[in-house]
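Standup, Tuesday
Yesterday: got the pipeline producing structure tokens again.
Today: sanity-check two examples.
Blockers: none.

Example 1:
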Amino acid sequence: MDNPLLEYLGIRLATVGMGQCAFELDVEPRHLNRQGCLQGGVTATLLDAACGYAGLRDAQDGELGNAVTVMLTISYLSKVDAGRIRAIGSVAKTGRSLYFSIGQLLTDSGVLVATAQGTFKRTLSSSEA
């Protein structure tokens, strides 16, 4: 994976395929807010990555393309303060240059922590972002 922010946070790419993606994170004290729960920005980063990467696999050559986030809406549903979490993204609809994804952030025991809906725009290179 070539994403310095995700690597810095300890976020690992678990799977990526046509229209789907999953990232994992082992929650550590550095990921927590003042109340001792997963910081909302970490949740947003996980869901943004999962939803965005879900639309990057090119059917033509199988390579990962590039995209930028146009819109991301997150619903925070449960707290988490430890353990492994998994962000799962899937493409709901694809257009010529935009695609729409949905995502879920789950604990290992299946507790739904947050959901997301996002719109992403394909780009030719990361320098266009």
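Example 2:
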Amino acid sequence: MPEQRSAQRRRIAIELWRFALPVLWFGMIAAISFIEAPLKFQAPGITIPLGLGIGRLVFAVLNLVEAAILLAYTILSFWPLAIRISGRRLWLWLGLLLVFTFKVAAVRPPLNARTDLVLQGADPGQSVWHYVYIACDLVTMLLLVVLAVSSARALLPAKR
């Protein structure tokens, strides 16, 4: 019986982390991508090059933290084997992995190249890549909400 309680406590602890990590990730994207990023350009004395330089630094760190959260969630999703995720949460995890990889590998490089041009004094004009990045963040946020709800449901006692 004590062994069963210990296993149950461990399952609950892991499920709590599986709930908390998506909520944390969602909050970071909401705060940085949709609050900080647009507001920084309204601050007195901020120029476009200065705002882009700050943005590049902030989003590089955000992406590193996102990668760390995704790695932690991945570990908690497949370990221990007895309570690994399956079904809907597995598909949500895969969606997060794909969107994050696309955002970092395909979207960030052209955004960084455009920032380089602006910092060198060029005017490269409008870019579709900002909208693609925003779309990636919106899809990520949607996946995170569904994942958090699914994880919260896993914490509920099983119906008998």
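Quick observation on example 2: The two ends are 20 Å apart (CA to CA). The chain has one domain: 2-155.
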